[in-house]
Amino acid sequence: MTAFTNHFAFEFKTGLRNSTLLLMNYLFPLGFYAMMGLVMVEINPIFGDTMIPAMILFAMMASLLLGLPGPLVESREAGIFRSFKINGVPAFSILSIPALTTMFHALIVSAIIALTAAPLFGGLNPVNWGGFILITLLSAFSLGAIGALIGVIANNARSTVLWSQLVFLPSMLLGGLMMPLDILPESVRSFSALLPTTHAMQAYLGYAFGQETLFNPALSVSILTATGILAFGLAIYLFNWDSKSDARRGHPLMALLILVPYLLGLFLA
Amino acid sequence: MKEKIIQVENFSKVYGEFVAVDEISFQVERGEIFGLLGPNGAGKTSILECLEGIRKPSGGKLDILGVDPSREARKLNSLIGVQLQSSGLPANMHVEEAMRFFCSYHGVPARYDLLDRLGLKDKRDSQFQELSTGQQRRLALALAVAHNPPVIFLDEPTAGLDVGSRSELHSLMQEMKAGGSTIILATHDMAEAEKMTDRVAILLRGSIVAEGSPQDLTATGSGFTKVSIRTEQSLLQQNGTVFPAVSQRSVKDEYTIYFSVDPAPTVSALLAYLDEKEDKLIDLRVERPSLEERFLEITHAGGTQ
Q1: Interface check A83 vs B, CB under 8 A
Q2: Cβ atoms A252, A228 nearer than 8 A
Q3: Residues B173 and B127 in one domain
Q4: Is B97 within 8 Å of A78 when comparing Cβ atoms?
Q5: Chosen from B54, B89, B154 to mutate, greatest number of chain A CBs within 10 A
Q6: How far is A91 from chain B (nearest CA, A)?
Q7: Chain B residues with CB inside 8 Å of A3's CB?
Q8: Chain A nearest C-alpha distance from B47 (Å)
Q9: What's the CATH code of the domain at B51?
Q10: For chain B, what is the domain count?
């Protein structure tokens, strides 16, 4: 337990000491939130109805998809994981603790957004706070697991950015954060069903805001749960102590298996 | 007979087509400092990495206190301490934090005293990236020995260290040895190997080409002992008198230097000659070949000796 506590404390502080992580965890999402609150609500008042979940998911993507994978890749390339291995730090801790601490940072920002959006920008508050908290935790778990998986499969800093953006950009644009799903063309909507933020938004709308949803929110919750479990399981399975190691299990393309719950969701929807 | 702590039998490591280590065998006893010497690419790192459990051997058997490093990683962690060549710590980890972090994973109290001893007292609150190379290496060493492991692997431990830190490291190594720890030292520093190790193995292209104590190895080379002599009248510099067992003579500054295969009769004859000629001796130095000279001799000969 002491080891876990020390490791957790160190990783949590890293999220504040490292300027890039501080930017991704706090400055970028809160700055964007402030900008959207000031500008977007003026331009499009409907945005206020989904402002809280949309900005929370944006904050989570910034820290968990854009912030979390980079240090994992850099640590592996710099031989830090080798040093950890020799000193008995398990692979599970190496992946789960940074993911947990980054989720913790994301949850702090989520709380700030949830508590300030209504008084500052007229954002709509959830009608079911219990459901809201559960969906927030589930979204963090799901995106954190995807971030950890990207950190495991990316070969270097460049491919980390590529993989992260591959999830971040469509999730941002087509996941229902910036515009409602029902205004998207049918073909694009099918594509958006392959994105984690689409299901997170649907779950928020259905269970926390009491609004009508395009997909069954129970199905969205199941997909998010399956994504989290599958992505983290794959991250542990594909984890490599160092890039020169000859003991890697499985091919990095196995990571695409996280699409299975989404494809099943499309089939069931 | 002392207990065998490390046993390596017919060990080999192959990367694709490249044979990095080719069926080598050696043993290390409790309390020994065992040196692994060799030019770059000789296979030292592959041996260390397999013994440390970082890589799996391609063939043969490795055993550290009854533990197979490739299969029993958890047991191995408490038995070994490793100072890697690249220190491998997160850039923003504080010195004190690093000690607490690794000790907690080993289940032992943090050894802050080691930080003080290795000259890191004032750096406890510094981040790893703020330390000099020497300080980073000293921290890595402190972390490697903090859980008091019976086997310690040191990979170029004194590279980048100043004279004081180097001396402190050497006395720490001697202390650990006296306490029963076994140390595997990989180094390019022949003077360090000669001074610190009980036995060395010289590696060349993945094979052990020489093994033994530094004294034994230096005694089995071409065997030339350097006898340097300086006299008041410098008579030896002026004539070509032949002395027993001398194969080569040269003059440098005020010294006449003889390379002898058997220094005892050479020195006796030199002293008798000076006595006879009434030339007064100022300085006489007898130097055995160093480990470095022997190492170069072996590696230049391609390990055929």
Answers
A1: yes
A2: no
A3: yes
A4: no
A5: B54
A6: 12
A7: 101, 104-105, 107
A8: 14
A9: 3.40.50.300
A10: 2
**pLDDT grade, residue A263 (50/70/90)?**
very high
- For residue B10, the model assigns a pLDDT of 94
Are residue B264 and residue B122 in the same domain, yes or no? no
* Inter-residue contact B193 to B185 (CB < 8 Å): yes
Under an 8 A CB cutoff, do A245 and B93 touch?
no
- Looking at the fold, whether B241 and B214 belong to one and the same domain comes out as no
Helix and strand tally (H, E) in chain B?
11, 13
Cβ-in-10-Å burial (0-12, 13-18, 19+) of B99 comes to buried
Q: Do B54 and A78 touch (CB under 8 A)?
A: no
Domain of residue B24: give its range.
Answer: 4-219
**Quick check: is B293 in a domain?**
no
Residues B141 and B234 in one domain: no
**pLDDT of amino acid B132:** 86
Say if residue B42 is in the same domain as residue B128. Answer: yes
State the Cα–Cα distance between residues B15 and A263, nearest whole angstrom.
40
| Per-residue pLDDT tens digits for A145-181 | 999 999 999 988 899 999 999 999 999 999 988 888 8
Query: In this predicted model, what pLDDT tens digit does every residue of B129-150 receive, in sequence order?
Result: 999 888 888 898 899 999 999 9
B-chain residue closest to A83, CA distance: B88
Contact A88, B77 (CB under 8 A): yes
Q: A93, A94, A32, A25: which is closest to A65 by C-alpha?
A: A25
Please report whether residue B303 resides in a domain: no
A214 — pLDDT class (breaks 50, 70, 90) = confident
If one counts every other C-beta atom within 10 angstroms of the C-beta of residue B97, the result is 21
Please indicate, yes or no, whether residues B253 and B202 belong to a single structural domain of this protein. no
CA-wise closest residue to B188 among B302, B75, B51, B85: B85
Tell which of B184, B219, B254 closes a domain.
B219
Kindly report, residue by residue over B217-230, the tens digit of the pLDDT.
776 666 678 888 99
